[in-house]
């Protein structure tokens, strides 16, 4: 059985893994898991990841969760080009530093913006709450300020002089609010330039392919399919965003 | 100038770095940064870490933040025993998995437990509603149970038969609510046994030394008003 990657391309870390695997010619079976339909809560997926989260990897009997762990595993196992995760000690440490920092500094606030702008309105049928959106954008601002004002002032990519796993993770995370109409690049020129460099390095077609789903407007009918699930989701989202 | 480690043992990730460096006899200069006095907000410290957080490392001109990155840097530079971060790709991946998961899971719960139960009322003089405290402790309970059921299970250590960076990071996190008076190991014999094994592997004296500060957290004198004003917004941002 070849490598299986359990992904939902609505999710930024899933997109990072998808892009990485495709870019590096890693052979894999894509196992789509539709979060919006609660497929991650089904018994079959529980066997893959008891924490019910995406992304997840299955390599024979070996199961692995957490996007950072999966990217590192794929880098090592398939001997990806060294720019992704440099061999030099200090360069590698810079990538590790970003990958650790981003969980709470980037991923959390960026996904909250997305949830407020897109997922919550979609499932609740209510319009976006502009006060809440503004507050959540404010929570993302320190990270953007740091990346634009400090990190990218010193170098072209986030960790080193070349594209690395840090850029890949950051790119898919920052595309999340952007794809649904909150262009977080517009106030940050170095970040905008970095985004263009990353897209060019990854390949525009691959980037477009990975982002196809999240760039599409959601079909309102989707939310009505399972009203009970929608209601539960709305409840959890409201708690999370409060 | 050799390796410098900027630490405050009040902080969980600082304890992990301290124990790791000491256990592996890594020569370093300890640069204490007193968080409760706001020393991490100084201009001098901003030269080491512009994000104004501990732990931070300085090795010649090279500065590094983030405990996981620091632990990995030390692992590689000082060629520590393999069990801390195995060469085997799958064994290593399991350590990476834990180190990634913990940022928004155990770290968060443990930090909130300490601040809601002890630091807000005692150090900052800000009451915490019983509902908020109850919710935080309930969340801690769930996360600790996850640690046991999903990661430890029936193994000797979190990712296999030997102690790794995962165990060190986890145990130093759990000592945060312990310092706050939460009995996280009570009613959890598997986890309690794991704790004993980790302490024994690290060395009881070193473990005790690293945890002196957190175990006295309840005795923190109240913050003076200037400090409190400086720290409040940062603390609120940190624990949300």
TrEMBL record, chain A:
GO cellular component: cytoplasm
Any Pfam family matching the protein: GST_N_3
Domain GST C-terminal: 88-221
GO MF, one annotated term: glutathione transferase activity
Keywords: Cytoplasm, Transferase
Main location: cytoplasm
One Gene Ontology biological process: glutathione metabolic process
Top-level EC class as recorded in UniProt: transferase
Family (UniProt): Belongs to the GST superfamily. Theta family.
Quaternary organization: Homodimer.
The protein's name in its UniProt record: glutathione transferase
Automatic annotation (TrEMBL), chain B:
Localization of this protein: Cytoplasm
A single GO cellular-component term on record: cytoplasm
GO MF term list: glutathione transferase activity
InterPro entries: Glutathione-S-Trfase_C-like, Glutathione-S-Trfase_C_sf, Glutathione_S-Trfase, Glutathione_S-Trfase_N, GST_C, GST_C_Theta, GST_N_Theta, GST_Theta
Keyword terms: Cytoplasm, Transferase
Domain of life the protein comes from: Eukaryota
The protein's enzyme class: transferase
Domain GST N-terminal: from-to ranges: 1-82
Record EC number: 2.5.1.18
GO BP term, example: glutathione metabolic process
Major localization listed first in the record, in broad terms: cytoplasm
PROSITE patterns the UniProt entry points to: GST_CTER, GST_NTER
Pfam family of the protein (one): GST_N
Catalytic activity field: RX + glutathione = an S-substituted glutathione + a halide anion + H(+)
Domain GST C-terminal: 88-222
Quaternary structure and interacting proteins, as annotated: Homodimer.
Similarity section: Belongs to the GST superfamily. Theta family.
PANTHER family referenced in this protein's UniProt entry, alphabetically: GLUTATHIONE S-TRANSFERASE THETA-1, PTHR43917
Protein name (database record): glutathione transferase
Gene giving rise to this polypeptide: LOC101377874
């Amino acid at each position: 059985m070849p490598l299986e990657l359990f992904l939902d391309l609505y999710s930024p870390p899933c997109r990072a893994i998808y892009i990485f695997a495709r870019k590096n010619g890693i052979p894999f079976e894509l196992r789509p898991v539709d979060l919006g339909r609660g497929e991650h809560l089904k018994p079959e997926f529980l066997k893959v990841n008891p924490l019910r989260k995406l992304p997840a990897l299955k390599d024979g009997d070996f199961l692995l969760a957490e996007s950072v762990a999966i990217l590192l595993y794929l880098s090592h196992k398939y001997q990806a080009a060294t720019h992704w995760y440099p061999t030099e000690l200090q360069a590698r440490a810079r990538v590790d530093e970003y990958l650790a920092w981003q969980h709470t500094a980037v991923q959390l606030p960026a996904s909250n913006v997305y949830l407020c702008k897109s997922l919550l309105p979609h499932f609740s049928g209510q319009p976006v709450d502009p006060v809440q959106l503004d507050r959540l954008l404010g929570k993302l601002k320190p990270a953007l300020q740091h990346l634009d004002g400090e990190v990218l002032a010193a170098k072209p990519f986030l960790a080193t002089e070349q594209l690395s796993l840090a850029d890949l993770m950051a790119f898919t995370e920052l595309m999340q609010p952007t794809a649904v109409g909150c262009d977080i690049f517009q106030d940050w020129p170095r970040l905008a330039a970095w985004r263009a460099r990353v897209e060019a390095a990854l390949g525009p077609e691959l980037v477009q392919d990975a982002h196809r789903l999240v760039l599409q407007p959601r079909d309102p009918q989707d939310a009505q399919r399972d009203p009970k699930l929608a209601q539960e989701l709305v409840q959890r989202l409201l708690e999370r965003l409060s | 100038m050799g390796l410098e480690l900027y630490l405050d043992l009040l902080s969980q990730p600082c304890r992990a770095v301290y124990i790791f460096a000491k256990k592996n006899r890594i020569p370093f200069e300890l640069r204490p940064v007193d968080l409760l006095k706001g020393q991490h907000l100084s201009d001098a410290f901003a030269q080491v870490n512009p994000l104004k957080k501990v732990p931070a490392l300085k090795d010649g001109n090279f500065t590094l933040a983030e405990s996981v990155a620091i632990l990995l840097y030390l692992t590689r530079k000082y060629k520590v025993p393999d069990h801390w971060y195995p060469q085997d790709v799958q064994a290593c991946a399991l350590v990476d998995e834990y180190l990634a998961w913990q940022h928004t899971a155990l770290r968060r719960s443990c930090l909130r437990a300490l601040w809601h139960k002890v630091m807000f009322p005692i150090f900052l003089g800000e009451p915490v509603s019983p509902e908020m405290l109850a919710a935080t402790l309930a969340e801690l309970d769930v996360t600790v149970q996850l640690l046991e059921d999903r990661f430890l299970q029936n193994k000797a250590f979190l990712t296999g038969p030997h102690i790794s960076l995962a165990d060190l990071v986890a145990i130093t996190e759990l000592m945060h609510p312990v310092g706050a008076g939460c009995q996280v190991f009570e009613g959890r014999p598997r986890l309690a046994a794991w704790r004993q094994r980790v302490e024994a592997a690290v060395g009881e004296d070193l473990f005790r030394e690293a945890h002196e500060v957190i175990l006295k957290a309840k005795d923190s004198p109240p913050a003076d008003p200037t400090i409190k004003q400086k720290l409040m917004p940062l603390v609120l941002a940190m624990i949300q």
